[in-house]
Amino acid sequence: MTMRYGVDAPFWVAFLIIIGLVFTLSGVFGSVNGFVFGYGLICLVTGLWMFTYSTTIKIAHREVILSLAQAKSGDELLDVGTGRGLLAISASQKGCKVTATDVWSKWDLGGNGKAKLKANMVAESVAEIDIVDADARELPFSDGSFDVVVSNFVVHNIKSVEGRRKAILEMWRVLSPNGRLVISDFSKTAEYIQILNSVSNRVEIKQFYYTFPFSKAVVVQKI
């Protein structure tokens, strides 16, 4: 278990665990009815599962994403919404030339920021990652710049349908011919699939039941 890569949706995790503890303990000591106790138990289990994903499961999940991306030594790889560097650091350790972008929202990831990313690079003996301040909807790179583009639990944070469409098409734009794009997310994936089906006939979907919430990876190769 490690807190190195932060807790996803930290305010929701804290809320669910606190509410869950209050209601379940109240149920144990007889001050609430069975329905409230059950609701509290669901909140508590959900919050703990989300915490476990953030501190343990996502370390393994990043290897699944990079495997689906077929990331290999020498690849130019872009990590969109890198956060504390979960995907970027592992890709760099595999010999990829990594560029990592983010807008560094602390609402979406606990302690998010470039300082945490750089600290994790030191902790995992990674010397070179090109860190760029950039919104996924306006990536500051030329067409076809990257062999691999990856993103994990990021695009759903963009509030508008049009914004999410722009982000996905930007990832597609900067992907080189024969490159692979992998977008892992727990929400809005039907949108991503529809958008990518409009530009490619090589869209694959992978389902994951070990993450929380359950998630999918949309995998596309650019021909």
Gyration radius (Cα, Å) is: 19 Å
Strand order of the largest sheet: 3-2-1-4-5-7-6
Compute the separation of the termini in Å.
39 Å
Q: Please provide the ordered H/E string of secondary-structure elements.
A: HHEHEHEEHEHEE
CATH superfamily of the largest domain: Vaccinia Virus protein VP39
Shape: globular
Report the CATH architecture of the largest domain: 3-Layer(aba) Sandwich
> What fraction strand?
15-25%
- Biggest sheet overview: 7 strands, mixed
Q: Which spans have pLDDT < 50 for at least 5 consecutive residues?
A: none
Protein structure class: alpha/beta
- CATH-defined topology of the largest domain: Rossmann fold
Global mean pLDDT? 91
By DSSP, the count of extended strands is 7
Question: What proportion of the residues is helical, as a percent range?
Answer: 40-55%
Q: Supply the CATH class of the largest domain.
A: Alpha Beta
Number of domains: 2
Count of helix runs: 6
